[in-house]
Inverse folding.
């Protein structure tokens, strides 16, 4: 192979690697710290104050939306057709710690009032959820809550 062809192949290979790298890593699609007490919920406009119940969406374009409760985030998702890179909820046992909603467990208990009154509390695993639910609580997966948010029975 001639030196000219090798040089052109290398040039295109470097260009391809650069384009792929930019596509994979170029956009900042990370959660942003929630400014408790200063930031308003992107759904209900109330101040986000309780560090145990906040939630956040990160769009595929890298924009973040913060919420004061899981139910605000779910309602916002139902009203917007945007694609989401990340869907995050706060681990109740570790305030301010956002975890992926898709794998968390939600406790619904009258003993755990969330900011918007639907009594939804997120935990990272079923063991923690079962420990927190108490006698009157119910444990759900996040997808179950997301599907039934508008038909949950009153507590």
């Amino acid at each position: 192979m001639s030196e000219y062809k090798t040089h052109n192949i290398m040039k295109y290979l470097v260009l391809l690697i650069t384009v792929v790298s930019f596509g994979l890593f170029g956009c900042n699609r990370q959660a942003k710290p929630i400014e408790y007490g200063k930031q308003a919920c992107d759904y209900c406009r109330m101040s986000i104050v309780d560090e145990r119940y906040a939630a956040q969406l990160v769009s595929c374009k890298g924009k973040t939306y913060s919420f004061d409760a899981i139910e605000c985030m779910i309602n916002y998702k139902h009203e917007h057709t945007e694609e989401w890179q990340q869907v995050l909820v706060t681990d109740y046992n570790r305030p301010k710690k956002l975890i992926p909603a898709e794998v968390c467990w939600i406790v619904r208990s009258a003993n755990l009032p969330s900011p918007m009154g639907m009594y939804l509390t997120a935990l990272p695993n079923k063991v923690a959820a079962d420990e927190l639910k108490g006698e009157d609580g119910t444990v759900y997966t996040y997808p179950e809550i997301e599907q039934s948010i508008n038909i949950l029975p009153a507590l």
Summary: The mean pLDDT is 88. The chain has two domains: 1-27, 55-150. DSSP finds four helices and seven strands in the chain.
